[in-house]
Design a protein that fits this description.
288 residues, 6-stranded parallel beta sheet, 10 helices, two-stranded parallel sheet
Length: 288
């Protein structure tokens, strides 16, 4: 008689965001999982009573927190809302993880840094966010570190995919209707395919790793937003038909780090992950 195998129960918050949708797209490749997807309507992480009620008669091995307030510009005008989702929402999930002994996988950002280092940021570099979005995400990180031992904080950067609202989709849309685009060269970072991040997260769960802590994950290499746009148009074969202009003075309401490239060596060593270059991953996505 065969023994019954217990599948790993995984809860995804913020399932309607681009990362949540990327996880859903590949979940069937991970047969040892039972994934449960929630959005703000089915699980409002900012509402403590709602969170307590949701978990009152159920538990999960892992909680992957993709729920986030990510509008960097708008966060300057409504910082309370940013902190409600990115800090208070995290606090509510942390309390559940403690009570249920669940492992928390939390998605954070390169914007916890000020961008003044001049070389890729390591996990143990001291954060110093310069905008409200970064401050709210750092507040969530700090609470996790103070109150949990079983956690993975994954900082990523410049996420894009075929889902949601992001720079990649904006350039695709504009390339269909505009003959001239002006893109900033004032920031340096790494475009990261959310599909790759989704695989990284599910691989950590599949490994059932206990190497808890903070990790950096993005694709390899670095670029300006202009470089990113240029590569999109190049792969699409539209560089000759669209005039692409550089600017180093693109006005934004929020301050942004000038160089927020993340060092991925620790993630590569700890989880034996094959990380694609940002150009290679972008090409794969467009060709698919």
């Amino acid at each position: 008689m065969k023994e019954k195998t217990t599948k790993t129960r995984v809860l995804i918050t913020g399932c309607d965001g681009q990362l949540g949708q990327c996880i859903r797209k590949i979940e069937n490749y991970y047969s040892g999982f039972e994934l449960y997807h929630t959005n703000s309507k089915t699980l409002d992480v900012t509402n403590k009573e709602n969170v307590s009620q949701f978990f009152s008669d159920t538990s999960f091995d892992f909680i992957v927190n993709c729920a986030a307030y990510t509008n960097v510009e708008q966060a300057e005008k409504e910082s309370e809302k940013a902190f409600l989702v990115n800090a208070k929402g995290v606090e509510n999930l942390v309390q559940i993880c403690k009570k249920k002994s669940s492992t928390l996988i939390h998605i954070s950002t390169d914007y916890v840094f000020d961008g003044k280092k001049g070389s890729p940021y390591m996990e143990d570099d001291i954060p110093n966010p310069i905008n409200e979005y970064g401050k709210s995400k750092l507040a969530g990180e700090i609470y996790i570190q103070k109150n949990l031992t079983k956690y993975f904080i994954i900082r990523t950067s410049w996420l894009y995919s075929e889902f949601g609202h992001n720079f990649f989709k904006t350039i695709l849309k504009k390339s269909e209707i505009e003959k001239e685009l002006t893109v900033t060269t004032s920031e340096i970072g790494t475009p990261t395919n959310a599909n790759d991040l989704a695989k990284f997260i599910l691989n950590i769960i599949q490994m059932n790793s206990s190497k808890y802590g903070i990790y950096h994950y993005s694709n390899l290499g670095e670029a300006t937003w202009y470089d990113f746009a240029e590569e999109i148009l190049r792969i699409l074969g539209k560089l000759d038909s669209i005039i692409l202009k550089k600017t180093d003075n693109y006005p934004t309401f929020a301050q942004r780090p000038k160089c927020s490239v993340l060092d991925k060596e620790n993630s590569n060593k700890s989880f034996d992950q094959s990380i694609l270059s940002w150009k290679g991953s972008l090409k794969q996505l467009i060709q698919r």
